[in-house]
Write a structure and sequence with these properties.
The chain is α+β, with helices and mostly antiparallel strands. The protein has a single domain, classed as CNF1/YfiH-like putative cysteine hydrolases, CATH 3.60.140.10. 21% of the residues lie in helices and 24% in strands. The chain is built from 6 helices and 13 strands. It has a 6-stranded mixed sheet. Strands 1-2-13-5 form a 4-stranded antiparallel sheet, with no helix packed on it. Strands 9-11-10 form a 3-stranded antiparallel sheet. A hairpin with a 5-residue loop joins strand 10 and strand 11.
Length: 243
């Protein structure tokens, strides 16, 4: 298997295609080595273009890239011109590729059991707290009980140290969020489980078939870019489309 791609292990319909990139298999020098897909992180634009061309060979069309702003806006992939300010996209059309880029934030891929709609969401803690998952589920316009979700590579629960204000914000919206936080060795900080927070949000939105959520971008430096670990680094992509 091409070690540039992670293929989600989930019971998606045959019509649904998805992959998540790693840092392997592309062009680039440190700190962007090798398959950096982000145009906004200071890498050589020619190398980024070459890496996107490598990715493009695995896809039916150019992805619907987003200008991610840690918000909750959801757009329809492939509709309109330019790069929209949004943190999620949906598609009901064959060959339109929904994509989000991450380097610690959580990518969430969704589809319905009938294979009629797909979506990709970028869920950093701000977007997650703000409701990007709920907004994406609503934009898919099918019964949430018919949806399947896959949680891609993100910062793991032993590495995601946050301030008390983050914990308070989540608990203010849902007291059950307390289960996703535990004390850090720094008495002024907490360790947050972004995967559990996402599962809680998905479940509250009516999505109960949830897969993935077992990677850590920070600790697995051989496979993943991590902003928290390295500061200056590349970006990976998680993508989903309908055949």
């Amino acid at each position: 298997m091409n070690d540039s791609w992670i293929h989600p292990d989930w019971p998606a319909p045959a019509r649904v295609r998805a992959l998540s990139t790693t840092r392997a298999g592309g062009l680039g020098t440190a700190p962007y080595n090798t398959l950096n897909l982000g145009t906004h992180v200071g890498d050589d634009p020619a190398r980024v273009a070459a890496n996107r061309a490598i990715l493009r060979q695995a896809l039916p069309a150019e992805p619907c890239w987003l200008n991610q702003v840690h918000g909750v806006n959801v757009v329809e992939a492939g509709v309109g011109e330019g790069v929209p300010d949004a943190d999620a996209s949906v598609s009901r059309q064959s060959g339109r590729v929904c994509a989000v880029m991450t380097a610690d934030c959580l990518p969430v891929l969704l589809c319905d059991r009938a294979g009629s709609v797909v979506a990709a969401a970028h869920a950093g803690w701000r977007g997650l707290h703000g409701g990007v998952i709920e907004a994406t589920v609503a934009a898919m316009n099918v019964s949430p009980g018919q949806l399947l979700a896959w949680l891609g590579p993100a910062i793991g629960p032993d590495a995601f140290e946050v301030g008390g204000e983050v914990r308070a914000a989540f608990m203010g919206a849902d007291p059950a969020s307390e289960a996703a936080f535990r004390p850090s060795s720094n008495r002024y900080k907490w360790l947050a489980d972004i995967y559990l927070l996402a599962r809680q949000r998905l479940a509250r939105a009516g999505v109960t078939r949830i897969y993935g959520g077992d990677a850590c971008t920070v600790t697995d430096a051989a496979r993943f870019f991590s902003y928290r670990r390295d500061g200056v680094t590349g970006r990976m992509a998680s993508l989903i489309w309908l055949d």
